Amino acid sequence: MRVDFAKFSSIKIGSVLDVKIVDDGNYDNEIIIGRATNSLVCSGNIGLLDDKYDFVTIKDGILRVGAKTKNAKLYNFAKAHNIGGFEFLSKLPGSVGGSVRMNAGMKDWVISTYLLSVNSIDKSQFEFGYRYCNITMPIFEVAFEIHQGFDITKVQEFANMRALQPKLPSLGSTFKNPPNDYAGRLLEAAGLKGERFGNVGFSQQHANFLVNYGGGSCDDVLCAIATAKKRVFEMFGVMLQEEIKIYN
Ligand SMILES: Cc1cc2nc3c(=O)[nH]c(=O)nc-3n(C[C@H](O)[C@H](O)[C@H](O)COP(=O)(O)OP(=O)(O)OC[C@H]3O[C@@H](n4cnc5c(N)ncnc54)[C@H](O)[C@@H]3O)c2cc1C
To answer: At a CB cut-off of 8 Å and minimum separation 6, what does 212 contact?
Structure first.
């Protein structure tokens, strides 16, 4: 199947690639992409999950979710069934598989909080950290503990946090926050806020968001990232680490 990642991805930048539709019987080392809301896909041996991994269900008191399921669908299911802990997904784009791989979250909430297993392997077999987990296999299905009590006040809190974020196409935060600091603060202090690289640039609203002003290219993104890392390192001695995933 041909996919134009300049249309598919949230930053609206990427290449047109032949991708394989992957299931647990035909996986052959492809890089699995979910919704590309955290990935710049310029080249590579890319796989997308088969549609059979798009489901949310409760079985034997456990929430079972296919990795292709959109976060929004899991959020709606949790809300409809009065399940707590997934409120932050109301404002988190992407798929459940990608979110588990990234250990995505907002404020104190991360998707691994109530996670029980990945592909039926117990969570204790994996390490989770800040926007990190050490899972290297394709994620097909995950299971979560059910905690009753969907909290609508949290949804409003997350919406308020989002109000200040750039509306232009992006991949969310470009860099991870270094220990005891903020990537956005360092980028701003290095004069990168609002700086453009071709058709992309570090947003005027939030310096850690690299936004596409229209017609941005993979090279524009790579140039912006390399320049920012170099400048921040030269000025502050901090080597920023990408939060986004780059397949180039
Ligand atoms: C406007 C905006 C705001 C955002 N805000 C936040 C935020 O507040 N907090 C936050 O944590 N993130 C945020 N993000 C980033 C993004 O929403 C999350 O990282 C999301 O969970 C990524 O899901 P995805 O399906 O798009 O992953 P992708 O971008 O498709 O993939 C991300 C990584 O996971 C791997 N992967 C994807 N699916 C699988 C699978 N099934 N099996 C194995 N590996 C897989 C990919 O290879 C890649 O390495 C934001 C993004 C945008 C655009």
So the answer is: 11, 12, 13, 168, 169, 170, 199, 200
Say how many Å lie between the CA of residue 94 and the centre of ligand 1. 5
Rounded to whole angstroms, the Cα distance separating 114 from 116 reads: 6
95 lines ligand 1 (CB under 6 A): yes
Q: Which atom of ligand 1 is nearest to the CA of 104?
A: 11
Does residue 138 line the site of ligand 1, with CB under 6 A? yes
96 Cα: distance to centroid of ligand 1 (angstroms): 8
Domains of the chain: 2-51 (no CATH), 52-162 (3.30.465.10), 183-247 (3.90.78.10)
Going by alpha carbons, the residue nearest to atom 1 of ligand 1 is 172
Q: Which residues have CB under 8 Å from 248's CB, separation 6+? A: 40, 42, 43, 44, 218, 222
Contact 139, 114 (CB under 8 A): no
Per-residue pLDDT tens over the stretch 108-149: 899 999 999 999 999 999 999 999 999 999 999 999 999 999
Q: What is the mean pLDDT of residues 172-180?
A: 97
Q: What per-residue confidence (pLDDT) applies to 124?
A: 97
